[in-house]
Design goal:
Elements (H helix, E strand, L loop, with lengths): L4 H4 L3 H9 L34 E5 L2 E4 H22 L1 H31 L6 H13 L7 H7 L4 H21 L8 H10 L5 E2 L2 E10 L6 H19 L4 H8 L10 E6 L5 H9 L9 E3 L2 E11 L2 E2 L2 H31 L2 E2 L22
Antiparallel strand pairs: 1-2, 1-9, 3-8, 4-5, 4-7, 6-7
Length: 369
């Protein structure tokens, strides 16, 4: 089902994982930050030299280091920044500064939570650490060790252990902070459902796969003609009974080739117009004619169509109850963080003290550099 993001927001631990980089048990192991490549976007805060690791901020005396910012930036946005460095280098500096500001705010909040957890006496036991490492190891590719996994991202196993320990303490604190949040009853849930009807409209969507013959960056007429000929050849093989998933894996220029070309479920407005128009016009099971977009030539196969409808309360009751419960816990944690931040002393090294400024407000936390 497709609903607004406010309804799909699930889980205080998941929310913290995205906000603070907390490693939680998921379907795939959390990837360590990658080493910055010389040809990729700069990964250092404001061009900090690779061998330097200065203090960027202190939060109640606890330092946030340049490496902390670099690590979270690469873990979250490394791929996007590298792509921007190639496609829109003139925008990179501005975007990177904005990203650094967001990450620094998140690191400030994580530091506040970690300090509070320590003050409360929370600790990660050896058993906590072993269990988390085992969960990560179980989701690694066969034959890959934890040490190799860490090294592939340019971090040490000790660094991962430290992160797990910190995350465990924060989860313990969050559990305490949210312990008095009660699950909403049916009356509350029904009231929300009735007051937010637009959130419970299932939009029309399709489940489809595609094979892409990319023409991006190709300007030579002969090369473009060869691309068209290649796409037509693949279409002919499909018309003659070729397996779509196999031909996608062999010939598609889209990362979806790893899943047989599957794009999953998508609604209107999520794809480029030419692709969307063709996909929603096709019958289920049919393989359409070539579709040309700015990305290249697409061959589309629609495998399922979901009609639009308004979902009944009974259909969404369970998930909505869980979502509202999680949102209440998230709000409780955010209020707690706000209280910590109002009392915190956040300083930038080298910045002259101004007694009139008092405590640093959230919007006043300085950017890196």
């Amino acid at each position: 089902m497709i609903m607004k993001s406010s309804f799909l927001h699930r889980g205080i631990v998941t929310a913290l994982a995205f906000t603070f980089g907390i490693a939680v048990a998921q379907d795939a192991p959390p990837a360590p930050a990658e080493k910055p490549d010389a040809n990729q976007a700069p990964a250092t805060p404001d061009q900090v030299a690779p061998n330097e690791n200065p203090v960027v901020l202190t939060v109640d005396g606890t330092p946030i280091m340049a490496d902390d910012v670099r690590e979270m930036m690469m873990a979250r946005y490394g791929q996007q920044l590298a792509q921007m460095a190639q496609e829109a280098p003139e925008q990179l500096a501005m975007i990177q500064q904005q990203v650094q500001g967001v990450i620094l705010q998140d690191l400030v909040q994580k530091t506040l939570l970690l300090n509070a957890a320590t003050a409360e006496g929370f600790e990660a036991t050896d058993e906590d650490l072993r269990k988390s490492l085992d969960e990560i190891a179980e989701r690694l590719p066969e034959g890959t060790t934890l040490e190799a996994f860490a090294a592939s991202g340019g971090v040490s196993l000790d660094r991962i252990k430290k992160q797990i320990s910190e995350d465990t303490k924060i989860r313990q604190l969050v559990a305490k902070v949210t312990s008095d949040v009660t699950r909403p009853d049916e009356v509350e849930v029904k009231k929300y459902y009735e007051e937010h009807p637009d959130e419970f409209k299932q939009q029309e969507s399709v489940v489809a796969s595609h094979i892409l013959v990319s023409t991006q960056g190709v300007t030579d007429e002969a090369e473009l003609a060869a691309k068209l000929e290649s796409a037509e050849s693949i279409k002919k093989q499909l018309d003659e009974g070729g397996a779509f998933d196999e031909l996608a894996a062999q010939h598609s220029d889209c990362p979806s080739k790893q899943n047989g070309g599957s794009l999953g479920n998508f609604g209107r407005g999520q794809m480029v117009p030419e692709f969307e128009q063709a996909a929603f016009a096709q019958g289920v099971g049919a393989i359409g004619d070539l579709v040309k977009t700015d990305f290249g030539y697409h061959i589309i196969k629609v495998t399922q169509r979901v009609e639009s409808k308004e979902m009944a309360f009974a259909e969404v009751k369970e998930e909505l109850t869980a979502s509202l419960f999680d949102q209440a816990k998230s709000q409780k944690v955010q209020d707690y963080i706000t209280g910590l931040q109002e009392k915190a002393k956040i300083e930038q090294p080298g910045e002259p003290e101004d007694p009139a400024e008092g405590e640093a407000a959230e919007d006043d936390v300085p950017k890196v550099g």
